[in-house]
Amino acid sequence: MRKYVLQLLIIAVCGWGCKTDSANSPDIEIKVNFSESVSAEPLDGRLLLMLSDNDKTEPRFQINDRDNTQLIFGMNVEGMAPNESAAFSPEVFGYPYASLAKVPPGEYWVQALLHTYETFNLSTGHTVKLPMDNGEGQQWNRSPGNLYSTPFKISITEKGVENITVVMDQKIPPIEEAEDTKWIKHIKIRSEKLSEFWGRDMYLGAHVLLPKGFEEHPEAKYPLMIFHGHFPSDFGGFRTTPPDPNMKPEYAARFNLEGYNIIQQQEAYDFYKRWNEPDFPRFLIIEIQHPTPYYDDSYAVNSANQGPYGDAITYELIPHIEKEFRGMGEGWSRFLYGGSTGGWEALAVQVMYPEEYNGCFAACPDPIDFRAYCLTNIYEDKNAYYYDSPHKKTEVPSHRDYLGQVHSTLRQGNHLELVLGDKSRSGQQWDIWEATYSPMGEDGYPVRIWDKFTGDIDHSIADYWKENYDLRHILERDWDKIGDHLKGKINIYCGDMDNYYLNNAVYLMEDFLESTTEPYYGGEVLYGDRAEHCWNGDPEQPNAISRLRYNSMYVPKIMKRIMASAPEGADLTSWRYK
C-alpha cells in the first residue's frame, strides 16, 4: 500500500514559531502532485515547496542561509504516485519560517520540487534511501531526474490561501559529460571497494591536465599534483584562448569587483601560457570527481556511512591515472592541495596516508580541531546553537564578513538543512561533516552529533569524531608513529577573518605543530591579515586573484620539496624537458 511519510516537526518553544493557536491560524494548505508525463512510476524522495516574493529567478535557485533567502518547506514521501497529492499544511517544517502559518500575507511565486531518492542495500546489511548523484555534483535544485513545477503567482491573505495545487510536470534533463581535448583528459572507473560497500556500481572520476610535450616525450614520467575540492564539472582555470572580447562584464559581490568573469578567463589563459613556458616543471594535475549520496564530495577518507573513499582514491583511482598517463607512481612524487573542503582533504589524506604523499598545502581548511568546530567546542559545549547562559539566549554565528558582521547563525543553517532533508540527507555542509565523521546508526543513517532541531550535543558521538577525524588530536596522539613520515609535508594557510571562523582551529593546530612536535614538523602555517575565506598563502594578491592560482602558486614549494626529499636514484630529469 502506498504511503506518504510526512515529517511533522512541532516546535515547542513559541519564539521559534511552529506551534500556532489553531483558533487564530490562517487556513493554509497547498497541495502538490506530479503528472504521468514526467514519471509513470511511484517515487521516493524529499518533496520541497518554495515561495518567493520576487521573480528574479526560479524560487529553487533562491534558497540559502543568508539575508536574501526565500521560503522553503519540506517533507519525505514514499511511493508517491502520479496525480496523487501531498498536502503542505502549517505542521510541515519550514525555513526561515518554521510554519506556513507564519508566512506574512502577500503575493508569492510558488514552486515545488521532488528530490528523488534511490534505495541502497549496503554491505552492512542496512537498507537506506538516498539521493544518488546524477552528474551534477549532488545539487538538489538541478539534479537530473528531479521533478519540478513552473513557478506561478499566488496570494496569501490573513485568512490563508484556498484550493492551490502545484503540479510538477517537468524533469531536469541529463548533463552532458565533458569531452577530451589535447590538454585535458577525463577518466571514469568503477571502484570495486565502493561498489561492494554501496551494493551497486559506484564510480570515481578525474579530470587530468597533461603537461606540455606529453606526446613528444614518451620516455618521461611525471610527478602528480592532486587538486582537492568540490565537485568539478571539468578541469577549471585552464583556457587556451584569450578572454572572450564579446563577454559582458559581471559584478562579483563577494569581491566587490566589476568584470570578475573576464578576470577569471584572463587568469585561466595566463595559466595556460605559464604551463607552456620553458622553465615550468612538467607535472600531471588532476581534479577528482567523487560525489556521494550525501554531498558533492566524499571528503576523500574512509567513512562508516560513505564507505572506503580514502582507500578507493589512493589505491584504485590514482594508480589507474598514473599508469594511464605515465605518472611516477611513488609517494615522493605525489602532492596534495586545495581550499576549504579541499584544504581539509589535502591535510586529512596526508595524515591518514603519510607515506603515499609527499606534501600537502591546505588552504582555509574545514575544522581541523573539533575544539573549534567553527565556533563550537563539541567536547565541552552542551549546545551548538546557543552560548551557555542561565538567563539569555545568544545564537552562535556561522558566517561573517571581514569586518565581523554576521550574516547567518548555526541554528539557521542547520534548520535549513533539516528542511532540505532529514537523516543527514540535505546534501549541505553540516550534514556532510556528520555523514563523514559519525558512526552509522541502527537505521543505516549517520548518528547525529547534535539534535538537529535543538542543537543539544551528543558527547559520546563527539568522542567518536575525536578518535577518527579530529586531525589535530590524531596527529598529537600518533606523532611518535607517523611524525617521521610527515616532516616537511604539512603546510596550512588561512585568513584571520575567515568567513566561517575556520582560523580558530588552525590556531590550535599551529600550537601543537610549533610547540610539541618531536621531530619538528618542518612545514609552515601562515595567516592572511583581514583575509576572508579562502585565503591560500599569497600575501601579495587578494583572495579574488590568489584563489584562481592554485595550480601554479605552490609549484616552487613543491619543487623545493622534491629536491630535498626524493630518494636516491629517483628520476629528477625525464620530466624537466623544455
Unreliably modeled segments: 1-23
Let me know the number of strands.
Answer: 26
The major pleated sheet works out as: 8 strands, mixed
- The number of helical runs is 12
Descriptive key words:
single chain; alpha+beta; Immunoglobulin-like; Rossmann fold; 26 strands; disordered N terminus
Topology:
Elements: E1 27-34, E2 43-52, E3 71-80, E4 86-88, E5 94-95, E6 106-116, E7 118-121, E8 127-130, E9 147-148, E10 152-156, E11 160-168, E12 170-171, E13 184-190, H1 192-198, E14 203-209, E15 224-228, E16 251-252, E17 257-258, H2 260-275, E18 284-289, E19 302-303, E20 307-308, H3 309-324, E21 334-339, H4 341-352, E22 360-363, E23 397-400, E24 406-409, H5 410-420, H6 429-437, H7 459-469, H8 471-486, E25 490-495, H9 503-515, E26 524-528, H10 543-546, H11 550-553, H12 555-565
Parallel strand pairs: 1-11, 15-18, 15-21, 21-22, 22-25, 25-26
Antiparallel strand pairs: 1-4, 2-3, 2-6, 3-5, 6-9, 6-10, 7-8, 9-12, 13-14, 14-18, 16-17, 19-20, 23-24
Helix pairs in contact: 4-8
Outline of this structure?
Helix content is 22%, strand content 23%.
Description:
The termini are far apart. The chain contains 12 helices and 26 strands. The chain has 3 domains: 14-171, Sandwich (Immunoglobulin-like), CATH 2.60.40; 184-369 and 470-565, Alpha/Beta hydrolase fold, catalytic domain (Rossmann fold); 375-467, no CATH class. The protein is globular and about 80 Å long. Residues 1-23 have low confidence and may be disordered. 22% of the residues lie in helices and 23% in strands. The longest helix is centred in the middle third of the chain and has 16 residues, at 260-275. By secondary structure, it is α+β, with helices and mostly antiparallel strands.
